[in-house]
Amino acid sequence: MDMTAGQNGGSGNGNRGGDGRYDVVVIGGGAGGLNAALVLARARRRVAVVDAGEPRNAPAARMQGFLSRDGMPPAALLEVGRSEVAAYGVDLIDGSVDEVLQEPREGGGPGGFSVGLAGGAVLRGRHVLLATGLRDELPGLPGVREQWGKDVLFCPYCHGYELRDRPIGVLGTHPGAVGHALLLRQWSADIVLFAHTLEPSEDERARLAARGVRVEEGEVKRLAVEDGTVRGVELADGRVVPREAAFVFPRMVPRDGMLAGLGCARDEMGWPATDRAGRTSVPGVWAVGNAADPRAQVVTAAGMGAAAAFALNLDLVDEDVERALLAPVGQG
């Protein structure tokens, strides 16, 4: 069925066109999706944002490195952003998207997309912008998931300053752990790399030693957690190395399963391939933020959303011109 604006948590503004379509359906209501929606709405485009309410940074108490928003709780940024876009008539729809399908071109004009929501509702849009982020697949060591976003962390630029000069552990659960430990040395002189299942090369060991990063051999058994706080890293031989925080390198997976039927090209890492504006290989489909780049922070995602919106609106202008040229005189 076709979804009526205002259902399922929508804002009720009903800003679709006369053909029942939005100009853009944004999938994902984080910084990237909301900033794209803001720019597009200010360009007087009909926009819907579908959001499942599962932001990647939800476990974090604060976000850092965002000029004028440094230290703001992530949820507060989203609350402000949702209010801003709603004021411009954007339809905010609480839900998740199961699939996006391409619609056929009609009468020589541009086609569009049907966006199927969980539960059966369907939105129609001329373009689709994916801003769903990624999911972090964490190692199965006890304590990691429970402390994730608190004192088990990934991003040094997000959390390193708050942990400056404190004892930090890096878990060797990923090939990038050596580089992670060397990077964290910028914030603290007390860094320990727990080799776990890694076998650092001779060159890597030399680099770690040169920077004063200690390597603890042996597999990690668990994180030692007391009163909801990491106190150390327990090894399989029973030793506990005192630490106040642990960094892990998760396996990052884009949340892009809803695009599976469109055949979007992927880069060498398996992410949707985009140009600098966020265009995928499928005309009318865009991807921004962590859905396209695992390195993007909140401020980066917001900028990517704005850049995509500028380019997307120009594409819509071209489509509007083509449609007008095909229309009978006086009806363009």
UniProtKB/TrEMBL annotation:
<keyword id="KW-0285">Flavoprotein</keyword>
<protein>
    <submittedName>
        <fullName>NAD(P)/FAD-dependent oxidoreductase</fullName>
    </submittedName>
</protein>
<dbReference type="InterPro" id="IPR023753">
    <property type="entry name" value="FAD/NAD-binding_dom"/>
</dbReference>
<dbReference type="InterPro" id="IPR036188">
    <property type="entry name" value="FAD/NAD-bd_sf"/>
</dbReference>
<feature type="domain" description="FAD/NAD(P)-binding">
    <location>
        <begin position="22"/>
        <end position="304"/>
    </location>
</feature>
<keyword id="KW-0560">Oxidoreductase</keyword>
<dbReference type="Pfam" id="PF07992">
    <property type="entry name" value="Pyr_redox_2"/>
</dbReference>
<dbReference type="InterPro" id="IPR050097">
    <property type="entry name" value="Ferredoxin-NADP_redctase_2"/>
</dbReference>
